[in-house]
Amino acid sequence: MQQNPETALGGPGLDAYALGGRDRARLGGRAAEAARRLAGEGIVAAALTWVDVSGITRTKTVPVERLEHAAAWGVGMSPVFDVFLVDDSIASGRWIGGPSGDLRLHPVLERLVPMAALPGWAHAPALRYAQDGSAHPLDARTLLRREIDRLAGLGWSVKAAFEIEWAVSKGGGDEFSPACRGPAYGMARVVELAGYLRDVLGALERTGVTVVQLHPEYAAGQYEVSVAAEDPLGAADTAVLVRETIRAVSMEHGLAASFSPKVEAGSVGNGAHVHLSLWRDDTGDGPANAMAGGSGPYGMTAAGEAFAAGILRRLAALLAIGAPTVASYLRLVPSHWAGAYACWGLENREAALRFVTGAEGERATAANVEVKCLDAAANPYLLLAALLAAGRDGLGAGLRLPEPVDVDPAGLAEQERSARGIVPLPASLAESVAAFEADAVLRDALGEAVIDTVATVRRGEIALFDGATPERIAAATRWRY
Fold it and tell me: What distances in angstroms separate CA 86 from CA 165, 212, 217, 222, one per listed residue?
C-alpha cells in the first residue's frame, strides 16, 4: 500500500509515524501494566475502536489478558472497512476494495479507560498500521496527529471540542417515538427524563469526560451535551466516547439514542458543531489565545483571523467530510441554525462560522470559532484533520475575513447576498464531493488515498439513495449513527 509523501505544505510524511521494534516492546510493557490494573477493577475486555469513512464507529474487542499482545502486535482487521457504506454494503476505490489485505489495530493506551456505562468493559481508540508497521494512509487518527504536528512546527496549537446532539426514542422498533414531550429547551424535558440524564452525566464523569453543560434542544426528544476543550486528538477521542456512553445509558433505560443528521424528515436534525481556538505556544507568559487580545475583528489577532478565514474559504469542500451523508443535506437548510451559508458573524447562529467571544473578563481563554454546518455522521478525526489543514493554509496565506454578517442570510435579498459575497453552501452531497475533489489544499494535506476513498464512499451513498424520499433517507440512516 502506497504511503503519502511529505506535502508541499510542509511537515512530516506518514513514514514518521511508523511502528518499530522498540515501540512494540514499550507498548507491550505498558499494556501489561494496564491489563493488570483493569483486571483488578473487574474489567474483562477492551473495545478497540476506529471510525470509518462513513462515520460509523467500528470495533474489535480483546480480553484484557490479550491487551499486551494487541498493543505490541495489533489485532487483524481488513482495510475494506474504509469503503463500507452507511448500510454496510461495500464500494471499491483505486486504493481500497476487495477481500485481500490486512491491517493491525493497536490500542492508544493513554486513552484506555473503563466505560462506566458498560460494566466490565474498557475502551481505547485504535491506530491502524500495515503489517510492516507503516501507518495506514486512511488512519484518520494518524492524519490528525500529523496536522497537529505540522501546526506545532509553526509554533501553534489548537484546542477543540464537539457539541453533540442526539434524539431519544422510547420503545423498540425502527420508528422514532420521542421519549419526552416537553417544549424545546424546556425544563419539562429535564423533569421527564431526569433519571436518564442524571445517569448520562454520571457515566460521562466516571469515564473521565468533563461535561460543560447539558440541555434540551429544539427537536422532539432532542438533547445536547457540550464537553471541555482539549487537544484535537483528545477532542475526537472524547466525541466517540461520549456517543457510545450515551448509547449505552439509553439502552439501559429502555431507550434508543440517534445521532443521525436527520432523525425525522419533517424535523430539524442533529448537529455536531466544532469549536476551535488557535494558541501561540512560544509566548513568555504561557500559551496565548490568538482568537483574543488582537486588533482584528472583535479582538482576533491577525493569526486568529487568518486561521478562521482559511476554514471559511474551504467550507464547501470540507462538507464532504463534515456533512458526509445524503441525510446531512436534509438538515443543512437555511433558517434552521444549521449554518447553510458560507459566511461568519459574531454570535450569529445562522452563519456557518460563528465567532464566540465569551463573557467579558474570560475572553482570553474563551474566545473561539464554532463551525456549525457539521453533523455527527462525520469521522471526528478526519474532520479535525481537514479543519486544521484549512486553518493552517489560511495562516500561511495571511487570509482576512470578509465583513461579518449579523442577520439570517436567508432573509437578505439575493442581490444583497451576492454583493456581500455570501454564498450558499452545497445543497447536496454531490456538490460537496465535487468541491472536495477540486480542493488542492485538502488533497495536498490528506493525500490521494483519502481523497479517492472519501469520494468513492460518498458516491456510493449518493447512488444508494438515488430517487429516495426524505422519509426513506431518514428511516434508513436513523439508527446507523
Answer: 19, 31, 26, 22
Strands 113-114 and 57-63: unpaired
Nearest alpha-carbon partner for 291 in 392, 364, 230: 364
Of 312, 238, 318, the closest CA to residue 49 belongs to 238
pLDDT tens digit sequence for 176-232: 999 999 999 999 999 999 999 999 999 999 999 999 999 999 999 999 999 999 999
Look up residue 334 and give its three cell numbers.
437555511
Q: Is the pTM of this model over 0.90?
A: yes
**pLDDT tens by residue, 389-448:** 999 999 999 999 999 999 999 999 999 999 999 999 999 999 999 999 999 999 999 999
Q: Domain 17-137 - what CATH class? A: alpha beta
Instruction: Give the CATH architecture of domain 148-477.
Output: 2-Layer Sandwich (3.30)
With a CB cutoff of 8 Å and minimum separation 6, the contacts of 22 are none
Task: Work out the burial of residue 182: count CB atoms within 10 Å of its CB; fewer than 13 is exposed, 13-18 middle, 19 or more buried.
Answer: middle
Contact call for residues 385 and 145 (beta carbons, < 8 A): no
Per DSSP, the residues of 256-325 read: EEE--S-SSTTS------EEEEEEES--TTS-EETTSSSSSGGG--HHHHHHHHHHHHTHHHHHHHHS-S
What does the alpha-carbon distance between residue 92 and residue 83 come to, in Å, rounded to a whole number? 6
* Domain segments of the chain as ranges: 17-137, 148-477
The gap between the terminal CA atoms of the chain, to the nearest Å, is: 30
Grid cell 444508494 is found at 464
CA 383 to each of CA 71, 188, 232, 236: distance values in angstroms, whole numbers, following the listed order: 26, 35, 10, 9
The whole-angstrom separation of Cα 282 and Cα 287 is 7
**Rounded to whole angstroms, how far apart are CA atoms 120 and 113?**
11
Task: Indicate the pairing of strand 368-371 with strand 222-227.
Answer: unpaired
Give the residue carrying C-alpha cell 495506514: 136
Q: At 47, which helix (H) or strand (E)?
A: strand 45-51
